[in-house]
């Protein structure tokens, strides 16, 4: 897929080969129809990071749709995310490497095509998210730049001449909205290219031709983008089995599509020395009741009720507590107290090693990160993610008994259960977060700050504790 | 199940009367079996609700043989798939998908129950057929004029409805999204009858496509709704009408008037129009009421489509010339130009056809015995329709080198 382009190689003093590409301005426009694949060498890191960054944005778009955000909200949230992970500046922006930005955008798109062409489901979702992203960029694009982008590509529309316009003047006028006067220009395309406009009865139809006013021109562009991408993905999927591929890529691609299916992409990582520093074993009960997401609450309750927890439960919960800020000494105390039906000997023999191991003090001494939502969701249950792995009845009663004290009522459940039914587990979790933190001023759609969805249990807990702290400080201020 | 038609009768019907060749031409668009036929799903409905799906055939002989062998109560036509339906299990997972299909519409009398007074449910009479003929007029014009399709086949469904099959090349290739769009374009009466018609922005004029239909429907409305069906004569009838009027003062005045003495629908409609004239021209109240009046006409007369039939390519629909199991009537093609004259009661039944066969010379069994029965004009109609489809397909093949595609 990626061919080697003309390039010159020089060997520098250390014997390393320097590769330079000789290209002109390859990306004259901010918008891209992705007609041509990237034909240059990329490093494996670039291959992966460009895709991961793009995936974060697409996942945010998907969850926006699942959360019924309005178009304006989706646009704002996505623009914020784009700014963070995949900035793409207009051509007249100064002081930024526009070529590099556009190259990343281009590359990321094509890497994700490889990852998402494999099944109908993935293709459908990818096309939807990509088209939304394109729409957002199109709408926010500078109008003159957009003009030049449009004229650079043949959209195969026929401009309606004056005589024809006059002939159908009355009919054309009847499709315009209340506040609109006359549209100056019309473009004629087969109606099949603008089904969305036909669906809403917004264009004049004659003999199968749709007369699209210039204001709705974007519909043609979006539709073209969508059908183009659909067709290309299908073609890619047919070529996939014949891809003479580097074994390094397969893993990356698998991983990418996995993340998208679970609805999450970003690996949340707590900055070292995060808010939870210095948590002691006896504080866990209290914290669990106030700040833990459903999965960890479930683990905690089970631990308290049964005085035991299975291996994966210990691993998942233990790592979560570690990242929360429980030191190894406190962790040992915590687990020792929790397993109060066994004697010291058994504990030391069977569990202490594992606890120390998870802190990187035994064995290969790796500092294991806490499990992310993606890992928990795809773990196959037990303990798993309650939103995914509990039966609906079980989940409802569990949610009520767990969060009832924090203001979750049975009327809220309807919405949560609907999202669960739709398979948007992280959205359900995010909604529960919003509902149970409304007293701290969290509104619907805020998510865990800036509209972001929950993608990691620790992120949930950290944000919850942060909010509580802020409120405490506010209360102190008032008192003072 | 008390189906009227026995297996023996069906065997004779399929063996001697069913026009397989015409159906084959109609589905295939050319004389030699193409993908349109080879990869087409035919589903058989057997007694006791048994359905055999995913049959496909190499040619029409094989098709006929199988139908005669199974003698299904009816069979249905599905889409053209990426590979032959009968070999679908050998296709790679996820690669067996519908690609082409006639664009189909189904209008059923049951959807009109809230606005017809003569019959209800499965019953149909010549009077309520007027609803169907009004719908056919509107839909036929809309599809030809707005969407530019020309190969339209209207087929009586055997009891209380009518189907439309569109075989134009573009129509065959429509995706599910596009089918959904065309259905929305042609849907005016909301599924929930109490909702407002979503046809205009505020009280602006109607979009041109509906304005054209309205001109025709206004006449139908007077004839059918006001005179023939007399829909607003009953309390229930006029209460429904009052709910559609957006002006509280007018509603009050009309209600007291209509409650005190009974009057015909025509009188009531006149009362309503008189109320509108109370407001001076150009006032917003008048504009709103005029818009409401147009909406009411559309609500009572505009075609009501069974949208699920049209929206998905893989929806099965009963083939023309099948026998309706309850009425025994043949699902014959209907000429839209003469739809008003069509009488569902006059459509030949299977019993009638078989007795016609008995009266003609009992000589040798002939393969196109339908020529000697009252089925003939209907088969001829389909053949003429096929001729125009096949002419176009041939022209296109010849002109394939000189590409004229848009």
UniProtKB/TrEMBL annotation, chain A:
<keyword id="KW-0639">Primosome</keyword>
<dbReference type="InterPro" id="IPR058560">
    <property type="entry name" value="DNA_primase_C"/>
</dbReference>
<dbReference type="GO" id="GO:0003677">
    <property type="term" value="F:DNA binding"/>
</dbReference>
<dbReference type="GO" id="GO:0006269">
    <property type="term" value="P:DNA replication, synthesis of primer"/>
</dbReference>
<keyword id="KW-0238">DNA-binding</keyword>
<keyword id="KW-0408">Iron</keyword>
<comment type="function">
    <text>DNA primase is the polymerase that synthesizes small RNA primers for the Okazaki fragments made during discontinuous DNA replication.</text>
</comment>
<dbReference type="Pfam" id="PF26466">
    <property type="entry name" value="DNA_primase_lrg_N"/>
</dbReference>
<protein>
    <recommendedName>
        <fullName>DNA primase large subunit</fullName>
    </recommendedName>
</protein>
<feature type="binding site">
    <location>
        <position position="295"/>
    </location>
    <ligand>
        <name>[4Fe-4S] cluster</name>
    </ligand>
</feature>
<comment type="similarity">
    <text>Belongs to the eukaryotic-type primase large subunit family.</text>
</comment>
<dbReference type="GO" id="GO:0005658">
    <property type="term" value="C:alpha DNA polymerase:primase complex"/>
</dbReference>
<dbReference type="GO" id="GO:0051539">
    <property type="term" value="F:4 iron, 4 sulfur cluster binding"/>
</dbReference>
<feature type="binding site">
    <location>
        <position position="429"/>
    </location>
    <ligand>
        <name>[4Fe-4S] cluster</name>
    </ligand>
</feature>
<dbReference type="InterPro" id="IPR016558">
    <property type="entry name" value="DNA_primase_lsu_euk"/>
</dbReference>
<dbReference type="GO" id="GO:0046872">
    <property type="term" value="F:metal ion binding"/>
</dbReference>
<keyword id="KW-0004">4Fe-4S</keyword>
<keyword id="KW-0411">Iron-sulfur</keyword>
<dbReference type="InterPro" id="IPR007238">
    <property type="entry name" value="DNA_primase_lsu_euk/arc"/>
</dbReference>
<dbReference type="Pfam" id="PF04104">
    <property type="entry name" value="DNA_primase_lrg"/>
</dbReference>
<dbReference type="GO" id="GO:0006270">
    <property type="term" value="P:DNA replication initiation"/>
</dbReference>
<keyword id="KW-0235">DNA replication</keyword>
UniProtKB/TrEMBL annotation, chain B:
<dbReference type="GO" id="GO:0006269">
    <property type="term" value="P:DNA replication, synthesis of primer"/>
</dbReference>
<protein>
    <recommendedName>
        <fullName>DNA primase</fullName>
        <ecNumber>2.7.7.-</ecNumber>
    </recommendedName>
</protein>
<dbReference type="InterPro" id="IPR014052">
    <property type="entry name" value="DNA_primase_ssu_euk/arc"/>
</dbReference>
<keyword id="KW-0639">Primosome</keyword>
<dbReference type="GO" id="GO:0046872">
    <property type="term" value="F:metal ion binding"/>
</dbReference>
<keyword id="KW-0804">Transcription</keyword>
<dbReference type="GO" id="GO:0005658">
    <property type="term" value="C:alpha DNA polymerase:primase complex"/>
</dbReference>
<keyword id="KW-0862">Zinc</keyword>
<keyword id="KW-0479">Metal-binding</keyword>
<keyword id="KW-0808">Transferase</keyword>
<dbReference type="Pfam" id="PF01896">
    <property type="entry name" value="DNA_primase_S"/>
</dbReference>
<keyword id="KW-0548">Nucleotidyltransferase</keyword>
<keyword id="KW-0235">DNA replication</keyword>
<comment type="similarity">
    <text>Belongs to the eukaryotic-type primase small subunit family.</text>
</comment>
<keyword id="KW-0240">DNA-directed RNA polymerase</keyword>
<dbReference type="InterPro" id="IPR002755">
    <property type="entry name" value="DNA_primase_S"/>
</dbReference>
<dbReference type="GO" id="GO:0003899">
    <property type="term" value="F:DNA-directed RNA polymerase activity"/>
</dbReference>
């Amino acid at each position: 897929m990626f061919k080697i382009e003309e390039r010159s190689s020089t060997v520098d003093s250390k014997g390393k080969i320097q590769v330079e590409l000789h290209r002109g301005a390859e990306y004259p426009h901010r918008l891209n129809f992705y007609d041509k694949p990237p034909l240059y060498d990329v490093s494996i890191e670039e291959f992966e990071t460009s895709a991961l960054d793009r995936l974060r944005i697409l996942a945010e778009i998907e969850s926006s749709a699942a959360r019924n955000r309005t178009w304006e909200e989706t646009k704002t949230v996505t623009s914020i995310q784009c700014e963070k992970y995949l900035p793409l500046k207009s051509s007249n922006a100064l002081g930024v490497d526009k070529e590099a930005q556009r190259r990343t955008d281009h590359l990321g798109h094509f890497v994700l095509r490889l990852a998402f062409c494999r099944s109908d489901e993935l293709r459908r979702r990818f096309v939807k998210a990509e088209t939304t992203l394109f729409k957002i960029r199109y709408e926010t694009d500078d109008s003159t730049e957009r003009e030049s982008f449009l004229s650079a590509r043949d959209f195969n529309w026929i401009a309606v001449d004056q005589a024809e316009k006059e002939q159908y003047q009355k009919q054309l006028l009847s499709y315009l909205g209340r506040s609109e006067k006359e549209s100056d220009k019309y473009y004629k395309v087969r109606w099949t290219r603008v089904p969305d406009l036909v669906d809403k009865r917004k264009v004049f139809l004659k003999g199968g031709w749709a007369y699209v006013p210039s204001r709705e021109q974007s519909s043609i562009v979006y539709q073209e983008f969508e059908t183009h991408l659909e067709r290309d993905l299908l073609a890619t999927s047919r070529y996939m089995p014949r891809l003479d591929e580097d074994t390094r890529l397969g893993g990356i691609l698998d991983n990418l599509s996995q993340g998208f299916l679970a609805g999450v992409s970003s690996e949340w990582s707590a900055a070292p020395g995060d808010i939870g520093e210095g948590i002691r074993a006896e504080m866990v009960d209290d914290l669990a009741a106030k700040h833990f997401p459903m999965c960890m609450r479930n683990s905690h309750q089970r631990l308290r009720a049964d005085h035991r927890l299975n291996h994966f439960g210990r691993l998942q919960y233990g790592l979560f507590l570690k990242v929360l800020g429980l030191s190894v000494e406190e962790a040992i105390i915590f687990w020792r107290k929790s397993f109060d039906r066994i004697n010291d000997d058994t504990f030391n023999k069977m569990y202490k090693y594992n606890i120390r191991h998870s802190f990187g003090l035994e064995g290969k001494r790796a500092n294991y990160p806490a499990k992310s939502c993606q890992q928990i969701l795809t773990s196959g249950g037990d303990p798993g993610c309650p939103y995914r792995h509990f039966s609906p009845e079980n989940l409802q009663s569990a949610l009520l008994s767990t969060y009832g004290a924090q203001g979750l009522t049975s009327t809220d459940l309807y919405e949560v259960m609907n999202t669960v039914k739709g398979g948007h587990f992280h959205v359900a979790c995010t909604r529960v977060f919003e509902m149970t933190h409304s007293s701290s001023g969290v509104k619907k759609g805020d998510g865990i700050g800036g509209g972001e969805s929950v993608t990691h249990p620790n992120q949930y807990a950290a944000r919850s504790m942060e909010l509580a702290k802020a409120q405490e400080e506010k209360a102190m201020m008032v008192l003072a | 199940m008390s189906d009227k038609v026995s297996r023996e009768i069906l065997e004779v019907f399929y063996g001697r009367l069913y026009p397989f060749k015409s159906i084959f031409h109609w589905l295939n668009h050319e004389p030699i079996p193409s993908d349109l036929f080879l990869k087409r799903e035919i589903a058989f409905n057997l007694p006791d609700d048994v359905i055999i799906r995913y049959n496909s055939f190499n040619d029409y002989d094989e098709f006929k043989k199988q139908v005669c062998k199974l003698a299904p109560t009816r069979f249905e036509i599905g889409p053209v798939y990426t590979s032959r339906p009968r070999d679908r299990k050998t296709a790679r997972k996820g690669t067996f998908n519908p690609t082409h299909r006639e664009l189909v519409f189904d209008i059923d009398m049951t959807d009109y129950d809230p606005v017809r007074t003569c019959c209800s449910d499965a019953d149909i009479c010549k009077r309520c057929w007027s609803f169907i003929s009004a719908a056919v007029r509107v839909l036929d014009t809309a599809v030809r004029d707005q969407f530019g399709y020309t190969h339209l086949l209207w087929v009586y469904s055997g009891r209380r409805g009518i189907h439309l099959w569109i075989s134009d090349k573009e129509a065959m290739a429509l995706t599910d999204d596009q089918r959904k769009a065309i259905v929305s374009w042609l849907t005016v009466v909301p599924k929930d009858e109490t909702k407002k018609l979503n046809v205009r922005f505020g009280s602006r004029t109607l979009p041109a496509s509906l304005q054209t239909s309205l001109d025709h429907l206004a006449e139908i409305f007077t004839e059918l709704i006001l005179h023939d069906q007399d829909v607003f004569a009953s309390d229930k009838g006029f209460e429904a009408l009052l709910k559609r009027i957006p002006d509280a003062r007018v509603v009050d005045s009309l209600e007291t008037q209509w409650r005190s003495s009974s009057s015909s629908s025509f009188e009531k409609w006149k009362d309503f129009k008189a109320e509108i004239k109370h407001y001076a021209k150009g006032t917003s109240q008048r504009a709103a009421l005029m818009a409401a009046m147009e909406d009411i006409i559309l609500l009572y007369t505009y075609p009501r489509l069974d949208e699920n039939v049209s929206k998905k390519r893989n929806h099965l629909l009963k083939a023309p010339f099948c026998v309706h199991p309850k009425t025994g009537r043949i699902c014959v093609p209907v000429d839209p130009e003469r739809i008003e004259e069509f009488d569902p009661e006059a459509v030949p039944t299977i019993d009638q056809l078989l007795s016609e066969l008995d009266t003609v010379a009992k000589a040798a069994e002939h393969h196109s015995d339908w020529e000697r029965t009252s089925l003939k004009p209907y088969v001829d109609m389909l053949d003429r329709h096929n001729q125009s489809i096949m002419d176009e397909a041939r022209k296109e093949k010849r002109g394939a080198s000189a590409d004229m595609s848009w």
